[in-house]
Amino acid sequence: MEKSLHEQTISGQGGELIPRIGGAIAENERAGNFGFSSMTKAKRILVVDDEPGIQQSLAMLLGFDGHQVQVAGSGEEALEKFQPGAYDLVMTDFSMAGMKGDELASALKKLEPQIPVLLLTAFPPPVKPPSVDLLMTKPFYVASLREAISKLCPS
Ligand SMILES: [Mg+2]
After folding, report:
1. pLDDT tens-digit profile of 96-130?
2. Residue 47: its H or E element
3. CA of 51 to the centre of ligand 1 (A)
4. Distance in Å, CA 33 to ligand 1 centroid
5. CATH code at 10-152
6. What predicted TM-score, i.e. pTM, was given to this entire model?
7. Which of 35, 54, 96, 155 could form a disulfide bond with 12, CB atoms 3.0-4.6 angstroms apart?
8. How many C-beta atoms surround the C-beta of residue 14 within 10 A?
9. Residue 137, pLDDT above cutoff 90
């Protein structure tokens, strides 16, 4: 039997990325708020992950909230796509072949010191890397992702 939207989970290597998506939806519904309007304004977000499924899931979720999303499959590709002023936020996986998420963050900050970087990882390092503004552990709730965006991009 096919699972309803409220039961579906998004999985990736290293465990579930975003479980109980329906939890966040139900919360909003209870509040009579079906959208994201109270959360944050639309942002230009670069999503970096070496797992295409996670890339696409994040792009879809963020797209539903009205954000403009571009994706990159590696730190190297992200650096090619990145231009100072082109994004409001970069969301990156930590564990990737080649350049790791914290190394990407350092490289991005050299190009644009103010760019907020959110690091997503199933295996968080004991200390937040200094190049990263916020660290989120997978799995996480959609509500937590929205909260992180509001925190990192308050305007
Ligand atoms: Mg990865």
Report:
1. 999 999 999 999 999 999 999 999 999 998 999 99
2. strand 44-48
3. 6
4. 33
5. 3.40.50.2300
6. 0.77
7. 54
8. 16
9. yes
